[in-house]
Amino acid sequence: MPRRPDISSVLVIGSGPIVIGQACEFDYSGTQACRVLRAEGIRVILVNSNPATIMTDPDVADATYVEPITPQTVTAIIAKERPDALLPTLGGQTALNTAVALAESGVLERYGVELIGASAAAINAGEDREEFKAVVERCGAQVARSVIARTMEQCRQGVRELGGYPVVVRPSFTMGGLGSGIAYNEADLERIAGQGLADSRTTEVLLEESILGWKEYELELMRDTADNVVVVCSIENVDPVGVHTGDSVTVAPALTLTDRELQRLRDIGIAVIREVGVDTGGCNIQFAVDPASGRVVVIEMNPRVSRSSALASKATGFPIAKIAARLAVGYTLDEIPNDITGSTPASFEPTLDYVVVKVPRFAFEKFRGADPVLTTTMKSVGEAMAIGRSFTEALQKAMRSIDKRGAVFHWDGPAPDAAATAALVERAAVPAEHRLLDVQQAIRGGAGVEELFASTRIDPWFLDQMVLLQEVAEEVAGAPALTRDVLALAKRHGFSDVQVAALRGIGEDTVREVRHAFGLRPVYKTVDTCAAEFAARTPYHYSSYDLESEVAPREREAVIILGSGPNRIGQGIEFDYSCVHAAMALAERYETVMVNCNPETVSTDYDVSDRLYFEPLTFEDVMEVYEAESAAGPVAGMVVQLGGQTPLSLAARLKAAGVPILGTSPEAIDAAEDRQAFGVVLERAGLPAPAHGTALSDEQALVVAGRIGFPVLVRPSYVLGGRGMEIVYDREGLVDYLARAGAESGGAYANGPLLIDRFLDDAIEIDVDALYDGGELFLGGVMEHIEEAGIHSGDSACVLPPMSLSDAEIARIRRSTRAIADGVGVRGLINIQFALMSDTLYVIEANPRASRTVPFVSKATGVQLAKAAALLMAGSSIASLRADGLLPADDAAASDPLDPIAVKEAVLPFKRFRTPDGRVVDTLLGPEMRSTGEVMGYDVDFPRAFAKSQSGAYGGLPSEGTVFVSVADRDKRAVILPVARLAELGFTVLATTGTAQVLRRNGIPATVVRKLSEGVGPHGEQTIVGLIESGAVDMVVNTPKGQGPRSDGYSIRAATTGADKPIITTVQELQAAVQAIEVRLRPSEYWNTVRSLQEHDAARAARRAGHQQEEEWL
Which one of 96, 286, 490, 496 is at 20 to 30 Å from 400 when CA atoms are compared? Predict the structure, then answer.
């Protein structure tokens, strides 16, 4: 069936901010879908609150609304744009839940909008636990025995019906397993089911019989209206059932199923997708197989593009989201061509002649006290994927792609003795971040496959493969000489030069020289969807120590762009955004080559750059790609500034090895990071920096801090996302910090000296993104932080244009930025953080690279900074970019009073991280970054923009109810006015004794509540924590008095996060919140106005054109 003629405009709902369980794979899916629909001549309207995505670029859709994804906002967009159809299957659970709400409330019917991609009935059948159980049983398959519960009493009754503990608890309509877990006893049930009922949209949970230890598989399927069904990919979890699939090491295709077993899963999967009624798109079905009896149970299905869809697309080269979008507008699979071969249709199932392994990346080190045990609630923040000709090769490549110390198999030191081996086997029984490393070390100590299978329930085939790695390692270590055969064996099993060097007790460079002398280099194979049955037209490559290379020669000069690797806190999708923009900007002049290993991102889409290498970002792997590309044709250079710290850390070695680095030189990058060199730059420019020093030992650190004076900001060298950064208020605090830092792998001084700065309390922090070409500066954006200095810029809300800076101060910031860019030697982007305190502008730090705010600034100002930066790095000047229309005549130093206001708000994952006894970890923000994503509020004034940012980040601020206030003494004077205004607006104010006294003296009625440390009162009066947990408090204002789990503040903040209520921890944020609440109390027409980025940009362009004309007349 050709495209439906009755659909001329489609509203696509994105997935909003990046959170654990719903990350940038939905940006990849949504971007693909928008491009395909526009290519079909359909007008695309997009709503997504996340500014860091490629999807929200103004040239991806026809109308882009960076607005909160709430039913009210989407209704306003539908009323304005009148789309023919709504496509909700590409924005994760956020989009599905919003679409269901719009369908149920009659909005879609009222405006004549059709739901495409999946009907409301299909969404319900896949998501509603009871309906799905009936569907599976109608298909002749089994689900785990289960009971639906809507109250805690029903939960307890359900456990009895299922035959006792353990039971699995799963809420309906949630994402990334939020709220789910395994209850081993009644205390667990109270904790997990209570939270699950709160998290579910329908207040229901499913209790299931435990199938812990079974093997887990997934199938990715697609179906069209002609009832063609294809199985795109089978995926097998290395970890058995009990670990969320997002947290498990997974392989594609499934490796331990017999042909008959795989056929059985296919038959069930195809029957289920038909019965649920998904007929215009993809779905993901998860199975469990009992290794003892072979019994198959269907765990769940997602009637939408899922996290695994991105992995399956990258693993097979089959673009699921692109095809799903075409199916949604009427095409059938046999009518859609396969991009990669050009000669086969999409109804051809992909065939793999290689193995793909995905490894998750975790961030437990960011959340002190968090329970590191992996369960059915997803906790990983990113993932890396690798492709190889064997499981061992792909696994080792994937593990080194994780880019984290201690994440790869090692053979350092003596092998574990019998006692240590027994302890490792026991520890591996509990799933955790380093489980596979524990298994590898246990095998090294002599543990057998049977013993490890009994402990871990990991399939014996995978364990046997790890024994094979041990045998290869022993052969490498024990060989009399490093011969060609020995080295080739190690390489075929994925050993890196670093691992071989460690096994032989020689240097990495020596191994490389020996390998090259033997002529041992990887060849690059192509992902072609068809196991080489048809020729592939897209150069999508992976390395292997095989025989023939498939890298085609080329005439054009190439530029190699290094991506940012797996997502992590501090280095996320924002860096991928800059890499993609570089590929787009440089494509006219050069052949663009992308190197990355993150399956979730747009940069690893095979049609973003001319060539894609799915490879780890290590020195060895990047050098081999460079040499392969140099052999294929001329290489102009490599871009390392845009992918964050991962490629930057390779810059100096790559340059020393003869690779031309485009843009800012590695020496200049080091000069900005090196305290002494940067101090010289600031001195020459006459710019003050806070008093600072460096230390290489704990004794030195205490002396330096004593000289500078407390409070101090301490941090290790070369970190991203403020890793290990803390504000320390006294000597005891510093001793405690040094003890904790010393206990981590490598210690506090692993990457260089510890940096110690005087901390500027109460300063206004300012973030600047700018471009510099060696002569001229273009000020991209000046952002003012809403919280005062001391909170990491990635976690702080910030506003652009700045609210309280005068034109004269902005001019001073511009002069300082130019002096630093010139002194460091920047060619391209630079990000500088300033602190303004009692009229002195201090420089906190400068980063001569793309920063995490580049996408936000680009969306807010309508200037695509990353594209401009890539062209500057390739030799263009700012003047030439202005002449070409890529940069406007005026930069951010010129103020326009009619410019809209943009507020960036961070989204934090605290709800997913609990201590072993079930409490949320402390939600206090500091200089170490903890947010996973961000949203943007965009409107004509600050209160409206801030209100939208809060609504997009966590559901918004209350417009009535009860507010609890407890602040440190230093903040008591500052909270009087904002709290008085809340009381005037009708809020009931609760406070602790000290704060209540101050408020009452200022004429503000406040009710005193009991602190947690005071306990429940004689007449049963609840403590504040009890009131928050029972839902009696709608908003909490709590500025910290001290850190640590013993303080009342921690319990208050943890209870508020657990109850899903807004928590405000700084006075500045309270003032902004009060303004936003005032706006929300006005009629909704006032604040719920929606304008697309394209409308904002057109109005800005018209104002600029008007100014120019006025100047010409004058």
Answer: 286
When the pLDDT of each residue in the chain is averaged and rounded to a whole number, the result is: 88
Q: Write down the pLDDT at residue 1044.
A: 39
In terms of Cα–Cα distance, which of 636, 507, 505 is closest to 561? 636
Token look-up 């003629």 returns 5
906-932: pLDDT as tens digits: 887 666 666 666 666 666 666 677 778
β-bridge pairing 382-388 and 355-361: antiparallel
Identify the three-state secondary structure at position 844.
Answer: strand
Which of 172, 182, 180 is CA-nearest to residue 203? 172
Query: Cα separation of 988 and 1033, whole Å?
Result: 9
Cα 417 to Cα 420, 899, 908, distances in angstroms: 5, 68, 42
How large is the average pLDDT for residues 272-280? 85
Up-side HSE of residue 932: CA atoms within 13 Å toward CB?
27
Helices 307-316 + 320-328 axis angle, to 10:
110
Distances (CA, A) of 824 to 679, 804, 849: 11, 29, 12
Q: Taking the mean position of all CA atoms in its chain, how far away is CA 1104?
A: 36
Residue 580 and residue 367 in contact, taking contact as beta carbons nearer than 8 Å: no
> What are the tokens at 679?
């101090």
- Strands of the sheet with 296-302, listed across from one edge: 142-143, 296-302, 281-289, 215-223, 229-237, 250-252, 355-361, 382-388
pLDDT digits (tens, 9 = 90+) for 189-226: 888 887 777 776 777 888 888 888 999 999 999 999 99
Token pair recorded at residue 292 = 């003892």
CA distances for 1056 relative to 439, 645, 895, 921, angstroms: 39, 34, 40, 11
The confidence band for 686, taking pLDDT boundaries of 50, 70 and 90, is: confident
In sequence order, what are the beta bridge partners of 183? 167
